[in-house]
């Protein structure tokens, strides 16, 4: 058996058909075996079961979804009648009509186009000139380099050539669904599988401890993805749907970590009390969502799939306890020995052994016990974490030596790792934001060792921060990055930011250039010289020199840019929260490179500190003569510290030696009376205390 045949056999054992398995080896020669996530997800999709899956970023979840759906049988409608009365009905058959078998909802245009690129790589132009019969894409605004089709044009194409798989963003699918013929064009009554890729972003569910405002927004202004799902649930029953499981997401199981831990009783009684309300109506009076339909004999249920690296107990509670649409652990006819019709598959180790075992057991059939045990053991052996352990995290604070009359010679400093640790020495924090952060919104917040100050003249959200842009250019150069990605706030202009970076000598490309549709010539060339898209892009980037890709942070979910070594988060507005940080950091350490080398990467977060003219708080002035002085930090630092605590991350220090040496050399050329002593220094902060008149906005 050759090597290619061995790879094909590994994918066929998961349930993929021979044609798809063969195309994988021909078009992606760097793939040697399915990933752990694909080994669990592909068989689950090919079974009559609903699935919620959580696996780390970069483990091939989206690609596995595409492979599994391509292997599913097509929907074919055969009409034996004819409109001509002179022709006997049994003597002539009309041409078979196909229907949409699967719909994939994705949160961004970039991720939708990524699916299309994968499909084109599997089916080159020489073998399949048009992808329309196999897969189509519906997004608002179109793609870079193409004319944006109108909704009417897309509906006309759907009617003429219904695809096997339809991919779309919630907003565009909702546009089609709101038309009189929308449900018919989308084939909702005959649809076999509905996939929510990056499900928490598609549904926009509130967090584990939502504020009243967040809960009100979720109930009154529901996300388009949630409205689409609700409309489909009015029509269709799922494999696992039924009576609500009120304890879903609140399981009292051993070994659960972080956001999987069971909330205290008083939180359960208040935050989750809505699930305990029931009604005889088909609409839940509290959520305004339809209740799950019961399965009818002889009617094919809809398969519901939800995947995300940050799927958690909140999502399970929503699906099983608040709506009953997808109930993990549910079994056919309620029989204890029947196969599961709903599964929670967790490959991060955060759910504990019993829940990991329950989700994976039975995926490969009774004769594949060894494969099942191996997958369970692999999931349990890894260290429970929300992100891959091969990602290195650093954070740089840019400030101007605040609370001092002297300007600093070193405008950058490292984030203080002490802020990311709890007082008991553990870096894990599973609760809501600390009281100091809540007070920080009011202006000043005090902690045991630091005080949070809100700058009076913070830049507006839509204004590009040139100070952070300069820091980004320096870090990109000093780190020797060959291929990096910079994520900027959603309200910043991509074109202005690119111009500012290019003025500083940085080669910048918009990430949409990578996700633009492949040209027919490039697609055809892949057939004569099979090579993966990742390898081609890597060789092209090597010849072009260092380059930095630019993208707004809200569009980064699920995006796969090959060969990235660094991700730069520019400002806390690019971080947003702990969930978004997980997905932003997950653009590095992804599969697709050398299979024999672990995928690694670095995440650099750039934050604004305090400006030079920030006034000294009265509390610090009153303690100026005491032994222990509090360190001043900005609100961005305080919020970032909470993100690190929630994720169990302690950032490492970035080497700022180049900047320090230049500052020292510049100071040596000045007369002693004109030298500016560096106010903050990583080495100095660790060995001695600053004098009262040199107190800065934090330690390095």
Automatic annotation (TrEMBL):
Compositional bias ranges of the Low complexity kind: 512-531
Domain Helicase ATP-binding positions: 42-329
Keyword Hydrolase recorded: yes
EC number: 3.6.4.13
Pfam families: DEAD
The entry's keywords: ATP-binding, Helicase, Hydrolase, Nucleotide-binding
Protein name from the UniProt record: RNA helicase
Lineage, top ranks: Eukaryota, Fungi, Dikarya, Basidiomycota, Ustilaginomycotina
